[in-house]
Design brief:
UvrABC system protein A; ATP-binding; excision nuclease; 28 helices
Length: about 775
């Protein structure tokens, strides 16, 4: 054998990232390796934080120091040896950018190809490619410029014009906003009396002082007495420099200021109180000039075969692919070929039901991951390591086979494919399996099995024992106590759907990806009184955030410490007065090394405990605050549940955390270190404490091991038996089999779906077998 052919393994020795315990494992190259284990066992720490992170760090080091200064700083993982690495391409579940201007077309570059096509073939001619872009505004100008000619400076008059495709009315957003003025101010009061009801515009605040002393209207008279010019200045005046309390500031009317400060952001990224104000004060409606297409009249007037670029972007991608294949123009043949291949990849990967004008922020985690896969399907690169994070998320059992084929195709091209996965259907196609465990958190972080699939079955590990687990149909189902009526639902691809969602039972809404499940529930059920939605949205929080702060658990604990010691509660917060003065409560000291990776060293004053030494002298139940935050949830539940440390408010939160299977998490563990499944269950624990009578869960099995699914089903039963209703949007057959009622949408995706194709019990669905879901569920339960 040639020496160059002997490097056929990726070797990891002594990995200690997060909860990994000196993990050593060897992975075969050019094979499909699946990593499994319970949520929190260390899969992502090994695959993403160790193998993929080191590969990307080493690639970044090949660039010049100047280029590295513009790239993210990546530290070396905590591992003794990594050998045999190849270039890693990570295809994760992170949601795509939620910017209001980002669509499927702009995020995948398909929109750029389409713009070039219309700039070459569209009639009448509208201009270059940017004339079809809704992110480019049309601007023009003229003036004198100074140029050097023959060694002398000469002034010349120049004019310029940039033709963009953005609709001038909505500026390329597709929607315009109307303001409810009663939500902006109370016209019976004056500005100095607190008339402005906008967040952060209090009388004592800076904005309140600017408006009260602007001089454009009287600050001490009720707004209802303002003249028309005065009210117009309050609402619409353009930016003007004024002097307030001797300081030069910029005054701007309420409407333009709100548009710049609030409406320029994506709604989901707003703080809760800002979002509530926006929902209350601002009504968004489709732009009347462009009908929501975001494009100018000029861009919409240029057509190819009677189709404008707005029409093309609104088409279902499977239909657009067929339309592109019908074009026969030798002058743009390479462009048509590249565009057709990319659109065919959408269809092949199961996303043919999307449209290019779909906002990218509305894609689910699974849809976003598959969208990122598209650019790699036709790649000519080989000997690359592709890293996938649960690629079957959001996929109906019918679609999982197609995803498996794509993973095998990437492997067969000579690539190494590493997949973190829980679904037995994907584990079954693995060439090599690495099982981590035996449990989660501090009880995990070890490789409990490494080998082929047959060996996993015989291994006796938690995964091996549950690999053949199949939930059975319930012998009896609950009787509904009423219904939520949905009438003529037409959100996205729904076709005037009428359906009654039963209450008091466990209802599962299912169907192939893109069939209309989320459109039906989020569009017609979420937002009603008493309905609590637990979705897959990411938890927003810094490395200072942890389960104790996120759930509100820390508040009663701080008060208990303060009461027991006769001091202020603020002392027991590492983000407030009790913080270690040396590290400001972070526990570590961060040193920025410019283009090199920053270094984090444990604070030598507090020894990583985050609190000032004087605070650690106060105890409650024999423990100081740092020792409490180091407790796992299960231990803390006992600690605060009885004896001298009994705190009922804290105990209730801890019970909910234990109920959702997070008993192994420590109270002070940073949220940034939690896995996707852990973050979703943390959100569920928070919502369990709310007073809603109906829970809507969006794919709660995301990130759950087969053993955890059993615990989830038991939790859902407890919620329903406690008098609440549970509606679950789900593809997992175990959840379907356990349901009291199933609502199946389809029969296909996109314009082939949007209809209710079955309503009834799981047993009736299995007996019927008229839908794809029925056929797969029947196969799953062995009927």
């Amino acid at each position: 054998m040639h020496a160059a052919d002997s490097h056929d393994l990726i070797r990891v020795h002594g990995a200690r990232e997060n909860n990994l315990r000196d993990v050593s494992v060897e992975l075969p190259k050019r094979r499909l390796t699946v990593f499994t284990g319970v949520s929190g066992s260390g899969k992502s720490s090994l695959v993403f934080s160790t193998i993929a992170a080191e590969s990307q760090r080493m690639i970044n080091e090949t660039y010049s120091s100047f280029v590295q200064g513009f790239m993210p700083n990546l530290g070396r993982p905590d591992v003794d040896l990594l050998d045999g690495l190849t270039t890693a391409i990570i295809v994760d579940q992170e949601r795509m950018g939620g910017d209001v201007r980002s669509t499927v077309g702009t995020a995948t570059d398909v929109g750029a190809l389409l713009r070039i096509l219309f700039s070459r073939l569209g009639t009448p001619y509208a201009g270059p490619a940017k004339a079809f872009s809704f992110n480019v505004a049309t601007i023009s100008g003229s003036g004198a410029v100074t140029v050097r000619k023959n060694g002398q400076q000469v002034k010349e008059r120049r004019e310029f014009e940039i033709v963009g495709g953005a609709c001038p009315r909505c500026e390329g957003r597709g929607s315009v906003s109307d303001f409810d003025l009663t939500a902006l101010y109370d016209d019976s009061k004056s500005i100095v009396e607190g008339a402005l009801t906008i967040p952060n515009y209090s009388v004592d605040g800076w904005y309140g002082r600017i408006f009260a002393n602007s001089g454009f209207f009287p600050g001490d008279k009720p707004i209802s007495s303002f003249t028309k010019p005065q009210l117009n200045a309050l609402l619409y005046k353009e930016a003007t420099r004024i002097k307030v309390d001797g300081i030069n500031v910029t005054f701007e009317g309420l409407i333009p200021r709100i548009q710049k400060s609030f409406l320029a952001k994506d709604r989901e990224s707003m703080q809760p109180h800002i979002r509530a104000f926006v929902d209350r004060a601002i009504v968004f409606r489709t732009c009347p000039d462009c009908a929501g297409t975001r494009l100018s009249e000029l861009a919409r007037s240029s057509k190819i075969g009677g189709i404008s670029i707005a029409d093309a972007c609104a088409m279902q991608i499977s239909d657009l692919a067929a339309w592109v294949r019908e074009r026969d123009e030798p002058s743009v043949a390479p462009l048509l070929g590249a565009l057709g291949d990319t659109l065919d990849s959408f269809v092949e990967i199961g996303l043919g039901y999307l449209s290019l004008d779909r906002p990218s922020g509305t894609l689910s985690g699974g849809e976003a991951q598959r969208t990122k896969m598209i650019k790699h399907l036709g790649s000519s690169l080989t000997d690359v390591t592709y890293v996938f994070d649960e690629p079957t998320i959001g996929l109906h059992p019918h679609d999982i086979d197609r995803m498996n084929d794509l993973l095998l195709r990437l492997r067969d091209k000579g690539n190494t494919v590493l997949v973190v996965e829980h679904k037995p259907e994907t584990i079954a196609i693995a060439d090599h399996v690495v099982d981590l465990g035996p449990r989660a958190g501090a009880d995990g972080g070890q490789v409990v099995y490494s080998g082929d699939l047959d060996g996993l079955h015989r291994s006796g590990t938690l995964t091996g024992r549950h690999l053949e687990y199949r939930a059975s149909l319930k012998p009896s189902v609950r009787t509904p106590r009423g219904h939520l009526e949905i009438r003529r639902a037409d959100t996205h691809n729904l076709r005037e759907v009428d359906v009654d969602v039963p209450l008091g039972v466990l209802t599962v809404v299912t169907g192939v990806a893109g069939s209309g499940k989320s459109s039906l529930i989020h569009g017609s059920v979420a937002g009603r009184d008493g309905v609590v939605v637990v979705d897959q949205g990411a938890i927003k929080g810094s490395r200072r955030s942890n389960p104790a702060t996120y759930t509100g658990l820390l508040e009663p604990i701080r008060k208990a410490f303060a009461k027991a010691n006769g001091v202020k509660p603020a002392l027991f917060s590492a983000n407030s007065e009790g913080a270690c003065p040396n590290c400001n409560g972070a526990g570590v000291i961060y040193t920025d090394l410019a283009m090199m990776a920053g270094v984090a060293t444990t604070c030598d004053v507090c020894d990583g405990r985050r609190f000032d030494a004087s605070v650690l002298g106060f105890t409650f139940g024999g423990r100081d605050i740092s020792e409490v935050l180091a407790m796992p949830v299960a231990e803390a539940e006992k600690f605060f549940g009885a004896g001298e440390a009994r705190v009922p408010a804290a105990h209730r939160v801890l019970e909910r955390l234990a109920d959702v299977g997070l008993g192994y998490l420590t109270l002070g563990q940073p949220l940034t270190t939690l896995s996707g499944g852990e973050r979703q269950r943390l959100k569920l624990a928070v919502h369990l404490g709310e007073s809603g009578g109906t829970f809507v869960l969006d794919e709660p099995t995301t990130g759950l091991h087969l053993a955890d699914v059993e615990q989830l089903l038991a939790l859902l039963d407890r919620i329903v038996d406690g008098g609440r209703s549970v509606i679950v949007i789900e593809h997992h057959q175990a959840v379907m089999a356990h349901a009291d009622r199933i609502i199946d949408l389809g029969p296909g995706a996109g314009h082939d779906g949007g209809r209710v194709v079955f309503e009834g019990t799981p047993a009736e669905l299995v007996a019927d077998r008229s839908t794809l879901t029925g056929q797969h569920l029947a196969r799953y339960v062995g009927a």
